[in-house]
Amino acid sequence: MQVSIETTSGLQRCMTIGVPAAEVEEKVVVELKKLSKGRRIDGFRAGKIPPAVAKKMFGKQARYEAIYQQMQQSFFKAVQDEDLKLAGMPNFEPTVDEDGKDLEFKATFEVYPEITLADFSAIEVEQKAAEVTDADLENMLTNLQKQHAKWEESTEAAVDGDQVVIDFEGFIDGEAFEGGKAAGYSLTLGSNSMIPGFETGLVGAKAGEEKTLDVAFPEDYHKEELKGKPAQFKVSVQTVKKPELPELNAEFFGSFGIETADLAEFKSEIRKNMDRELARGLRNLAKQQVIAGLVESNNIDVPASLVDQEIDRLRQQAVQQFGGGQKFDMNMLPKELFKEQAEKRVAIGLLMNAAIEANELTPSAEKVEALIEEVAASYQDPEEVRTYYNTNPQQKAQVEALALEEQVVEKVLAQAKVSQVESNYEEVIRLVNQSAR
Question: Reaction catalysed (predicted)?
Answer without folding.
Answer: [protein]-peptidylproline (omega=180) = [protein]-peptidylproline (omega=0)
